[in-house]
Amino acid sequence: MLKRTPLFEAHRAAGARMVEFGGWEMPVQYSGIIEEHHAVRQGAGLFDISHMGRFMVRGPHASAFLQHVVTCDVTAIPIGQSNYGLLCKPDGGIVDDIFIYHVPDEFLVVVNAANRDKDWAWLQNHARGFDVELEDRSDRWAMLAFQGPNAEALLVHAEDAETSELGNLPFHGVALTSMFGVNVLIARTGYTGEDGFELFFDAPHAEMIWTRLLALGAPGSVKPCGLGARDSLRFEPCLALYGHEISETINPYEARLGWVVKFDKGDFVGRETLAAIKARGPARRLAGFEMVGRGIARSDYPVHALSGERVGHVTSGMPAPTLGKPLGIALVPTALSAEGSEFDVIIREKPVRARVMKMPFYKPRYKKA
User: Fold this and answer.
1) Beta bridge partners of 108
2) What is the DSSP string of 97-128?
3) pLDDT digits 0-9 by tens, 110-122
4) What angle do CA 334, 282, 109 make, to 5 degrees?
5) What angle do CA 293, 299, 303 make, to 5 degrees?
6) Which three-class secondary structure string do you get for 68-93?
């Protein structure tokens, strides 16, 4: 049986095409992936991401515990801020990529939907010896992403004036506010490459808040968006997707995520192995590429050196809607990851030339001021 979010019936009523994703029945599109993609790049789009995992971490050792299991420096996240981090295995492989939100007296850890059970078990197993309490709030809360250059101007009309936090919320900031009379934890985070917000609130209010957010502004100002547009939007700024650019067999340096690994903070799971990888350099690395020959690269297509031998695979690939051309990301030998290098992507058993280009393909437009 596939799991469903509190908004399942609202998605069906809106005519969304539902698909299986990580054990969940989720909307892949409403009006169309391309239309929804452009709506977020040019205006505002609303995503149901309630399938993601939401874990609370509290107690005297909450900070020390997270410092032990993640690669980022948790002590550098002040209350009211959040940061991206990685859970790594002792061998350096990535268990998951996560976001950590520091709220008063506790931390909120958001994990990928397909990894909810695995991550929950990982955290519990590593909590031994720490005075810490873990709570799985995934089913209690709904989670929405409101993304796009018009998101702030529209969302300000949803906030109750006496608790307004939106205008003062910095990049990666998180605060408690009220929308439509409901307590909402709001964060200036998201995974589209645009300014935007993620909202956390009690699940029974999901359909009311979803409907009222879609009604903000002039008719059509806010588009409901599915997983298809979410994928293309994260792809253009080269944001990693678990199971594609990152996995338990890919380490942070191969994934170009070395900036998330903070050795100065002290010991953490995987530290010794990751330090050794950094010192010698990774043998393979992600490379963004454009198709020189005619064809579209897709996930898992083989990558061959020009001499003919297989050397890697495509992790993500598609015609990029904003840039108007077929692009891709591949895991290849480090020597082939340099800008201007060429290799062949095997499409329908035929080699098609590709050329490495600078990443990201699309420069994110986060509001960092």
Assistant:
1) 56, 101
2) EEEEEEETTEEEEEE-GGGHHHHHHHHHHHTT
3) 999 999 999 999 9
4) 120
5) 55
6) HHECCCHHHCCCCEEEEEEEECCCCC
Per-residue CA distances from 140 to 203, 207, 261, 367 (Å): 6, 14, 32, 30
User: In the structure encoding, which two tokens stand for residue 184, read together?
Assistant: 């909402």
Residue 291 CA to residue 297 CA, distance in Å, equals: 8
Q: What type of residue is 141?
A: W
Q: Which CATH class is domain 53-136?
A: alpha beta
H-helix or E-strand spanning residue 279: helix 271-280
Gap between the Cα atoms of 245 and 217, Å rounded: 37
Reported as a single tens digit per residue, the pLDDT across 330-360 is 999 999 999 999 999 999 999 999 999 999 9
Extents of the domains making up the chain: 8-50+139-235, 53-136, 283-356
> Positive or negative, the Cα torsion across 68, 120, 243, 38?
negative
The C-alpha atoms of residue 84 and residue 86 are separated, in whole angstroms, by 7
pLDDT digits (tens, 9 = 90+) for 141-191: 999 999 999 999 999 999 998 888 888 899 999 999 999 999 999 999 999
User: Would you state the pLDDT for residue 167?
Assistant: 83
Tokens of 272: 């010794």
Measured distance CA(70)–CA(92) in Å, rounded: 11
Q: Which residue has the tokens 């010896």?
A: 129
Domain 8-50+139-235 has CATH 3.30.565.10: no
Calpha distance 100→108 (Å, rounded): 6
Length of the chain: 369
CA-to-CA distance for 173 and 118, rounded, in angstroms?
27
- Is the pTM here over 0.90, yes or no? yes
| CATH number attached to the domain at 283-356 | 2.40.30.110
Q: How many CB atoms lie within 10 A of CB 76?
A: 12
3-class secondary structure, 185? strand
Amino acid of residue 61: H
User: For 136, how many CA atoms within 13 A lie in the half-sphere containing its CB?
Assistant: 16
